[in-house]
């Protein structure tokens, strides 16, 4: 009988691997792999429920039930996830020419701000003014300043846009946007965060969908032109993508198939009539964006997702800020579930209810992950069982499910994400998300909206023990459990714990420890010296220095603050100041440094006294460049690279000091 089971399992594993490799080309095999995962995991969970709960004492039974519930919760999340991806969806393109001439809708652009720096806000305003639209007079820009700052009012006057402030600051961002609705009258409303920069073709790629009178809003992905803390603190620029990319580009696209696209607070365009039908932007919860989109869909408005990079902004720049942001999102989703539970709202379809419930349920995954991290520690460190089985049964029931889960996710994510990367992200935030959800559900609710810091600059690196200590504690306990497990296997440490259980939990701890080690790296906050992100360029220029030297050069990268320029010849006696012209725009600069690298002369310059024409030129060709010009990076997701690079960089910097 054992030989028969082994043969069946071997065939199943081979079929799983076959579907994985050919599923990249044939969608039906991708669907087959999803079915294999669901069936094998269902069988595994049935076995777990009926035959593995410990019964030697009450505490072990409780721990066993908790672990089983976490596994069942994770499986429920994966069921909805794979339902979304079972059939690939792409919204048919609808261009601006869907409208007849002279019938274009009027547009109000709301840029919500509270305490962002003027430099961040100015480029967002200028980019909004640069957007292409057949009738420019139909586009009005409103800077909605909930900080009521005189300097922002002056900036708006200088740039020729509307400044909106209110006397009472109720309901945070949602209240700010609702007030802006009361002082404007455009047919369509674009909502933007202050750090988000619209590309020149944003309106050309989104407005056409509103030719359909039932279209309520169109969401575009939030993308980022700076490294998030995962990319930056792990020295993984161009190796791994932003941790929001998979949700913003892939999951949102698949939700669109069920008219369940989630409004994510920025980079979206609404029909005013639709917003008015629900009383404006939802208030009373932290995540007013999610609630607003759901209420519109409950009113039978159609919604859509345009999967193009039409606006980019700033990701959180420290791991501590990322944690605060995710805590806010987690609490906000719980608040939405309490105030507008998807199964109580009239008008939503079954799939819409399921998808929004899944979105709220997702934030419980921090609790599930914490349970998965603690279970093997309880077993090998404290001798507390959470499941009772042997190695043969584990290999029979768990192994096919595990292999299928790894391969199915990697296949479906199409290199935007991997199981191990996802595991690292979830591990790093699990203690904080678990606390936030538990606190919001049972203890003290936080209703206050907190703006994520943007434009953070630091000159020194530091290790943030406040974000690191839960991970460090879990890592130390996991490593202690590993050492104890190995000593138990070789007989140095005597115990009555069955060896099969030790083998299982040693593997489990190895898996967890890998993620915990990488998660511990994230609290090492690296210095961010530049005020603005740099953009690559190949523009050829003629540079005139104040000592009358004229040198040909090429801009390698630049932004509104300065540039890095390669000179055509090695020249030693360049003066400190100079100027170059591009398309009639004058760029005066101060030379900050000059270096000889690989036989080439490079200079770094800081711009000074840029007039608005030159400033607009830079914004148009950097942050706001047309989406057809912008090239997305393809990431390798090589974890070994991250591990090696982190240690090389850290040790080299210590040696330098």
Automatic annotation (TrEMBL):
GO terms for biological process, alphabetical: UDP-alpha-D-glucose metabolic process
Topological category with respect to the lipid bilayer: Multi-pass membrane protein
Record localization: Membrane
Keyword set includes Membrane: yes
Molecular function terms from GO: cellulose synthase activity; cyclic-di-GMP binding
Domain Glycosyltransferase 2-like: start-end pairs: 188-403
Listed InterPro entries: Cell_synth_A, Glyco_trans_2-like, Glycosyltr_2/OpgH_subfam, Nucleotide-diphossugar_trans
Membrane-spanning parts: 6-23, 28-47, 59-85, 360-382, 394-412, 468-490, 502-522
Protein keywords: Glycosyltransferase, Membrane, Transferase, Transmembrane, Transmembrane helix
A Pfam family recorded for this sequence: Glyco_trans_2_3
Protein name stated in the entry: Glycosyltransferase
Organism: Leuconostoc litchii
Classification of source organism: Bacteria, Bacillati, Bacillota, Bacilli, Lactobacillales
